[in-house]
Design brief:
There is one protein chain. The protein has 245 residues and is α/β, with parallel strands linked by helices. The protein has one domain: Rossmann fold. Helices cover 46% and strands 15% of the residues. Strands 3-2-1-4-5-6-7 form a 7-stranded parallel beta sheet, sandwiched between helices. Helix 1 packs across helix 8 and helix 4 packs parallel to helix 6. The longest helix has 29 residues. The protein is globular and about 50 Å long. The structure holds NADPH dihydro-nicotinamide-adenine-dinucleotide phosphate.
């Protein structure tokens, strides 16, 4: 499906690889100016810039979990951009362990990046969107937040937290024509799940009704739809893209 996002400015956190890269790429191809943010991997960020050098791409390196860094990013953003139409809170990490063995640092890191990062970015994004009375915030959650996979208490708590955050924020900003939704991807073939042992991959695939992992483009497809003006009546909800998991 074709969308026209000419003249739109879009921020995709973790937009330089995996699911975020697919979302950023689709917005670029539909004409948007995209700022793809990342944490530390300069090599993939530079590759992304090179690959899309004919498009309106820039990258920004900062930690979404760090409030001061996020504020500095938006200070700079507002000097160089007239508006912000879309924020995709996609940056995320996993540090799996059973609760009894989970170092408290791993608990905090996963909550900070996945959940606090969503709050930090959304807080400044809505300031940009309010004045223009239009905006789309899309948060990438996970079925783990709903189902609670063993060994993922930190990740499940963060991802469930994003769903609650989305519902509250959607009610706060609805009058300004800003929608806030989640996409919940099932198992998507990216580096995030490359460490899963082969027997677990086999077990997970057999539990998915369509019997395979998804692709990043399965998620970007839904992000394009949620961003569109035609999706203005969808807010505060989660779209599951899980192959029926
Ligand atoms: P990847 O590991 O492939 O990419 C993660 C991206 O997030 C990278 O660009 C990374 O930057 C960035 N990032 C990580 N930590 C931070 C931080 N503190 N500040 C800023 N950026 C950060 O992940 P996926 O593409 O697989 O996942 C994207 C989202 O989708 C995540 O929220 C994940 O939880 C969710 N998800 C993924 C599923 C899957 O099966 N893949 C399933 C369900 C949900 P850098 O490159 O610099 O490290």
């Amino acid at each position: 499906m074709k969308y026209n996002y000419e003249d739109w400015t879009v921020i995709v956190t973790g937009g330089t690889r995996g699911i975020g890269k697919a979302i950023a790429s689709d917005f670029l191809k539909q004409g948007a100016k995209v700022i793809a943010t990342y944490f530390g991997n300069d090599e993939t960020a530079n590759q992304m810039k090179e690959e899309f050098k004919e498009y309106k791409i820039s990258t920004a390196k900062f930690d979404v979990a760090n409030c001061e860094e996020v504020e500095a990013f938006f200070d700079d953003f507002s000097k160089h951009n007239e508006s912000l139409e879309v924020l995709v809170n996609n940056a995320g990490i996993r540090k799996d362990n059973i609760v009894g063995m989970m170092p408290s640092q791993d608990w905090h890191d996963v909550i900070s990046t996945n959940l606090t990062g969503t709050y930090n970015m959304s807080k400044y994004a809505i300031m940009q969107m309010m004045g223009k009375r239009f905006g789309r915030i899309i948060n990438i959650t996970s079925p783990s937040g709903k189902m609670g996979f063993a060994g993922q208490a930190n990740y499940a708590a963060a991802k469930a937290g994003q769903v609650g955050f989305t519902k509250s924020l959607s009610k706060e900003v609805a009058k300004r024509a800003i929608t806030v939704n989640c996409i919940s991807p099932g198992f998507i073939d990216t580096e995030l799940i490359k460490d899963l042992p082969a027997d677990l991959v086999k077990q997970y695939k057999s539990s998915i009704p369509v019997k395979k992992f998804g692709k990043p483009s399965d998620i970007s497809n839904v992000a394009m739809f949620l961003a569109s003006k035609e999706s203005s009546y969808i807010t505060g909800t989660t779209i599951e893209v899980t192959g029926g998991l």
